[in-house]
Amino acid sequence: MIKDTIEIGALRDPYHRANPDETLPERWRTPIAIAIGCGLLGIVLRYLAREHATADAAEYITWYTFARDHGIGGLAEAFTNYTPFYSYLLLIAARFDWLGQPLSLVKMISAIFEVGCAVVVARMVWRVTSVPLRASLAFCAVWLAPTVLFNGAMWGQADSIWAFFALISVAMFMRDRNGVVPFAVACSVKAQGVFLGPFVLGMILRRRIHLTWLAAIPAAYAVLAIPVLVAGRSLVSVLGVYLDQAHTFHRLTMNAANVWVFAGGTPYAVGVAAGLVLAAASGLALSIFIAQSKRTGPEFILLVACVSLVLMPYLLPKMHERYFYAFELASIALACLNLRYLPFAVIAQVDGVLSYLAFESGIVMGLLPAALCNTVLVFYLVLDLRHGEIGSRFARFAWLGFAASTAGLFSYLLFAGPGLNVSLAYMLVAGLATAMTLLLVKETRCASADALAASR
Questions:
Q1: Degrees (nearest 5) of the Cα angle 280, 282, 284?
Q2: Which DSSP string corresponds to 127-177?
Q3: Burial environment of residue 305 by CB neighbours within 10 A (0 to 12, 13 to 18, 19 or more)
Q4: Tens digits of residue pLDDT in 328-366
Q5: pTM as predicted
Q6: Which tens digit of pLDDT belongs to each residue from 78-94?
């Protein structure tokens, strides 16, 4: 009888071993090797791109040089157009001036927070799935994501900083903890942290967290501003950072693949007002939906966070191409939790690169197909909030068509070069790429619906 019991248990758990300690190295060996290999590859790629400079690089070098030459005393001056937190990071980086050139050290700041983002995403996946390979692949996917490499390694941008704190906020809510404080820090680092605002408000209402927690947002900004105020910087200067940034550009889209790509002829003042109203109304509707929804679980929490992070930059005017950064990373985590969302993460990266090329190489014709594909993502993500499907299927034809069409689109754009190169070939590849994006997402949703019906 005991022998039969052992045999039945072996059939139910074919990976069971008499000594549990023997399974741990085998279970972790491959994921650790993959993480180390991809980690080293990411370091090599960032090293190769260390001298790549954009039009903004001269400004970053000026900021860094000021921080290095003036030290802590420089905090009395507004030597960057960012919030005080970034000034502190420049001062820290300047302490390692002997390591390399100023631009390389500025990029190192971004790289450190990129590692942080990759770790946070990996921990999200690990806590939900407890599958080491999925957590390892999540880390690698974030660390090597094309948009991440563009943003930090090539451009030296600081979006990984606010995204890091935003992801921590989401991770805490996924663990049934209060994530308002890291969200407040994200908003204090860069104004783009507010993209997570509808999600946080919805979670506050859903969890019946006292609304006084919203005071953490100005409180965090005030606390982080204490060193510069003590150093002698004026209060007006500190409080006016975001207001000054809002008046920097006067275009409805700064290469962001959002709804304003389709409304280029809208007067600037009208577009700004309409965009703010549309985003506020949609954000409030999302918050109310989150508060009232009966769905639960970490996957649902991450899904609504992704919707918040993509919906806001999609609807708001004056957005840059890099403002989808946090969504691109959160969608990777979502794909690792449920493979049905893998197309969303892949399409987000493709759209992101198309947008980055508009600034990097002046190839603006990639914005239209990218905006069309982002429209598909937003539409189907919002649909998913109403229909909780499960399961996934590798739609071979759809994946093949998407890969071929996007490869053709990139090839055309790169060969055609910068400028407005509207032609029959462009219309064909752009339309085909959008159509295959729609087919890919639609087939994935149909497959999940079939899986749900079968489970019932």
A1: 65
A2: HHH--HHHHHHHHHHHHT-HHHIIIIIIT---HHHHHHHHHHHHHHHHTTS
A3: buried
A4: 999 999 999 998 899 999 999 999 999 999 998 889 999
A5: 0.90
A6: 889 899 999 999 999 99
Top pLDDT among 281 and 395 is at: 281
Residue 7 CA to its chain's centroid (Å):
47
The two three-digit tokens of residue 338, written as one number: 């449920």
> Two tokens at 277?
């109203």
Which has the closest alpha carbon to 212: 236, 184, 249? Answer: 184
Q: How far apart are CA 157 and CA 372, in angstroms?
A: 26
Q: In a 3-state reduction of DSSP, which class is residue 253?
A: strand
For residue 192, give the nearest of 361, 328, 368 by alpha carbon: 328
Between CA 63 and CA 105 the distance in angstroms is: 12
Torsion of CA 102, 107, 112, 114, to 10 degrees: 170
Pairwise CA distance, residues 297 & 304, whole Å: 11
Tokens read off for 358: 């508009």
Amino acid letter, 211: L
User: CA–CA separation, 65 vs 162, rounded Å?
Assistant: 23
Q: Measure the CA–CA gap between 377 and 293, rounded to whole angstroms.
A: 21
Return d(Cα 19, Cα 42) in angstroms, integer.
37
Q: Does residue 124 carry a pLDDT above 70?
A: yes
Q: What is the mean pLDDT of residues 277-297?
A: 93
